[in-house]
Amino acid sequence: MATRISACPACDAAPLAEAQAGKGYHGNGMEAQRVMLSLPQIYCAACIAGVERGLAAQPGVRAARVNLTLKRATVDVDPGVEAQPLADYLTGIGFEAYELDPGQLTSTATDKQGKDLLMRLGVAGFAMMNVMLLSVAVWSGATDATRDLFHWISAAIAIPTIGFSSQVFFRSAWSALRVGRLNMDVPISLAILLALGMSLYETMHSGEHAYFDAALSLTFFLLAGRYLDYRTRAVARSAAEELAALEVPRAARVVDGQADEQVSVADLAPGDIVRVVPGARVPVDGIVVTGESELDRSLLTGESLPVAAALDSIVSAGEVNLTGPLTVRVTAAGRDSSLHRMADLVAIAETARNRYTSLADKAAAVYAPVVHLLALAAFLFWFWYSGDWRMAMNIAVATLIITCPCALGLAVPAVTTAASGRLFKQGMLLKSATAMERLAEVDHVVFDKTGTLTEGKPALDALSRHKPRDLEIALALAEGSSHPLAQSLAQAARAAGVQPADVTQVSEVPGKGIEGKWQGKIVRLGRAEWLGANAVGQTATYLAVSGAKPVAFTFTDALRPGVEQAIAALKAKGMGITLISGDVPAAVADIAGRVGIEDWKADTLPEDKAEYVARLGKAGRKVLMVGDGLNDTAALAAAHVSISPASALEAARVVSDIVLLGQSMEPLSGAIDMSKAARRRIKENFAIAAGYNAIAIPIALIGLATPLAAALAMSTSSVTVSLNALRLKKG
After folding, report:
1. Fewer Cβ close by (within 10 Å): the C or N end of the chain?
2. Is 418 left (phi over 0), alpha (psi -120 to 50) or beta?
3. Could you tell me which residues come within 8 angstroms of residue 551 by beta carbon, excluding any fewer than 6 positions away?
4. CB 280 within 8 A of CB 320
């Protein structure tokens, strides 16, 4: 019996907490084991409470925690408690669950990184405000002992703050210098350390000027830019890890004359026989030895309609056995399986795409060495000219601060943040920091079919053309099947007010269809070859009544809203468009004709899609891939930039740069326009930063800017860049 879920998550959580507290962890004193379950169909807090409460009530479960974002449950259990019975229990109460292998999953440090940056930013901001208050007193005329006291208090605040908050820049700079190269963090670190060192020297010698406030302001603004950059990245888990996590960790190996034994998939060898029960995921690549069934291959091909499996049929890891038990001879398992090879394809493609160099990185490659040379030249000239190393060092520090690449560092993330906010309002979620720049370069778009251009749900055609008797019999049979076509037929017939005929002895024939008795006659609903019907050349299921010609019920996959408008707008921009699908040629040609795509390819495997996208890239095209299935992940990763609908498989959303939040495809063209506007803003920001440096650097070089004035000028340039980026929200 399914566990009742309250509408109030708090009401659900309270009894769960009490139950877990009552259980205690003092039980048998043995160390708990940890199992992980995938929960692909959970969506809300009530789901979380229902799963956690249900698991907590199971024998041997010590604690259960659900992560809604990852759609996973982590369960601490007593030794000997297996994961599969827990997954079966959850599936039985309405929460689809699969066992995950914890060894395939790696934890990410992205949340920790964000909190760490925010904490360092907060400390720097608090210290900066306090030191500025002390500086006001010095500027107001404090002299001698009072001035020295305020300088020492400022030093006591600034030194530990910079030691803590600036570690981000120091570590990055040291990593670069260790291997003999420069990056943007090298001049940043030098400017901070020199400003701090000179201020400490002046304080120790009762100097009039100290620049602790400048060093802290510099640290604060740079950390603000770094955190802004982090916020735009939404660092995702690797899609390759997501695919590996879908692999089944155990299989039931058939042993002659004995009960099946549960073994690790890694221990299976070619030639072994495994049993796959209905509802289970196929753990290996292999060939069917006995049994008939239907397989859900949507994970691999993206197509929602099941395919028949019988003797000598080839099956692949990741497919779901739907109707009948199968025994399969292993041809490849574990790291040799097709699912794992797909994960390798994605990992290779991800690595290649991550080599993209952003505009900011290109600018930094030139900027950093120039800044160092200018500061060094300023120090050497003024030391030679005046003989005063303190004055020469002050000018060099001012040069480093005034040319500090804070505005350069903000140029891209500020624009990306503003643009991503506007895109979010239009129904698109930006996940990658460089996606906006890459999207602006796109000149060719590749679409998947099922679930991308179409809704992936077959709809019954022309119900009114069928005889009432046929509809009533078909409805009675369809309601006894879980096949997608049968469910669609039943839903359409019920919506039209059709009542089921009195069909008895209804039973499902694995891999073929469903049959029963009506008025003493055998009636069947299923595949054309089973019923001896002539196939109609499109998606269909067939009804046969003894002594009568089989009747075809045809189905059409409805287009996703806004598809035709999006493709028309892309064509108007002069972009190449390709439709690529694993479906049969007739179905692909039909959809291509309906949406106006001339270039299409059918019967493509996942590696074919990735290879086609890579080939376009090698030919100089900048490809946007739009897809939603596991079979699309390698192609999504190989593309210059990629988009997935929110309804896509988790692994596809992870590897994509942008997620389409709504049902409509219409925002696609607008996103490309926005990306081009964002690229213009980025270039404008670089121009602002360059213009600022053209004015400020000569002033610093001739000694007219103190380190404090340089820090204020640097802050002004950063604010200007941010304000320019905000224009995207209006335009």
Report:
1. N
2. alpha
3. 466, 470, 542, 543, 544
4. yes
Concatenating the DSSP letter of every residue in 625-691 gives EE--SGGGHHHHHHSSEEEEETTS-HHHHHH-SEEE-SS-STHHHHHHHHHHHHHHHHHHHHHHHHH
248 φ/ψ angles, rounded to the nearest 5 degrees: -75, 125
Q: Residue 291: which of 302, 280, 299 has the closest Cα? A: 280
User: End-to-end distance of the chain based on CA atoms, in angstroms?
Assistant: 56
Q: What is the pLDDT confidence band of residue 673, given thresholds at 50, 70 and 90?
A: confident
Give the β-pairing of 33-38 and 285-290: unpaired
CA distance 452 to 647: 9
Strand (E) positions, 318-453? 320-321, 326-332, 428-430, 444-447
Lookup: tokens for 462? 């022309």
Closest to 636 (Cα-Cα) out of 236, 361, 364, 322: 236
Angle between helices 468-478 and 484-495 (to 10 degrees): 130
Task: Determine contact, residues 251/266, Cβ cutoff 8 Å.
Answer: no
pLDDT in tens, 544-581: 888 678 888 888 777 888 888 999 999 998 899 999 98
Instruction: Please give the Cα distance from 347 to 243 (Å, whole number).
Output: 10
Is-contact 213 168, C-beta < 8 A? no
| Residue matched to tokens 């060099």 | 396
Active-site pick, 12, 185, 213, 448: 448
For the question of residue 272 being annotated catalytic, the response is no
For 720, the enclosing helix (H) or strand (E) is: helix 707-726
- Name, in order, each residue with C-beta under 8 angstroms of 311's C-beta and a sequence gap of 6 or more: 288, 289, 290, 292
Helices 212-233 and 144-165, packing angle to 10 deg: 20
Question: What is the spatial order of strands in the sheet that 314-315 belongs to?
Answer: 261-264, 250-253, 273-276, 326-332, 285-290, 314-315
Q: Inter-axis angle of helices 212-233 and 110-139, to 10 degrees?
A: 150
C-alpha 164/C-alpha 157 separation (Å) is 11
Tokens of 680: 């213009």
Determine what percent of the chain is predicted with pLDDT higher than 90. Answer: 7
Strand 444-447 to strand 307-309: parallel, antiparallel, or no bridges (unpaired)? unpaired
pLDDT in tens, 324-359: 889 999 988 877 776 766 665 555 444 444 444 455
Q: Name residue 555's beta-bridge partners.
A: 460
For residues 458 and 498, give the distance between their C-alpha atoms in angstroms, rounded to a whole number: 19
Whether the pTM exceeds 0.70: the reply is no
- Which stretch of 4-8, 34-38, 677-681 has the lowest confidence by average pLDDT? 4-8
Residue whose pair of structure tokens reads 């997620």 in the numeric block? 659
Question: DSSP for 125-193?
Answer: HHHHHHHHHHHHHHHTT--HHHHHHHHHHHHHHHHHHHHHHTHHHHHHHHHHHHTT---THHHHHHHHH
Consecutive H or E run containing 361: helix 359-386
Taking alpha carbons only, the member of 660, 636, 653 closest to residue 580 is 636
Q: Please list the residues that pair with 273 across neighbouring strands.
A: 329
Residue in the structure block whose two tokens are 């598809």:
563
Question: Is residue 283 a contact partner of residue 248, using CB atoms and an 8 Å limit?
Answer: yes
d(CA 165, CA 182): 21
Chain-centroid distance, C-alpha 603: 27
Q: Where do we find the tokens 């109030």?
A: 8
**Band of the pLDDT at 182, cuts 50, 70, 90?**
low
d(CA 45, CA 135) in angstroms, rounded, equals: 51
